[in-house]
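Protocol step 4 of 6: structure prediction from sequence.
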Amino acid sequence: MPYCLIKIGYDSSFHGVQYQPGIRTVMGEINKITSRMGIRKVYFSSRTDSFVRSSTNLIEAEFGNCMALASAINSIDGIYVLSYANVDEYVPLRGRFVKEYLYFSTSIPETDALAETISEFMKSDYSKFSKDKGKKVYLDKIDFYILNFGTILSFKGKAFSWNFVRISSECILKRALGEINKEEWDKIIEGEINCKYKGKGKNLILYKSILPFDMINFPSDKLDELEFELIKQLIWIRGMDSRIMNKISQIADVFFDKK
């Protein structure tokens, strides 16, 4: 039974992944295409909230022509097909592959305070920060990067949600900044009270889905168009304030040159 695995990226124009009647979502737009191709079900490895971007989400469908399916999905406005793979049987997606979310914040805590807070968080039963009560969360680690314009938190693991990242990130940052005192923080990580903070979806990116097998690069012209638009935007911003180049260089050093 042939299945197709397709790695996609999508912009922040969608009201989340999950299908919602009358609202433009990633799943809803893909289902319009795949239903016409006779595909009954499309599976997602990760679901994201409204306005959360993804650079590497993974979908799967039972279909014999993966190139045709990838081309159809790539035609959807706001969705970019990156690669695909042909497999002989269904591959379970949820919680099976390592994924990485990045959370961006304008907060700039002290390095030692943030490191200590993350250490305390990782030693706790952090599953309590998930809104999916009773669901075990599996994190490998949380990295952080304090830059001159803010902080980036990186969550890596196999079983956690965008909602978990939004809540955990803001609570960790608030504690590191001293806006949550020690007594309240102890109660939060012990699960006695819920943390009341939650970050914005627009500050979150599903950055990577790390797969244990090779995929075929998809020749998407849309990626060239996206690159062209980003360069125009970059030059426009730089014309107003050249400091943006220093900030972009910082991110490039952390997430591209050194990885």
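Step 5 (inspection) to follow. The longest strand covers residues 53-62.
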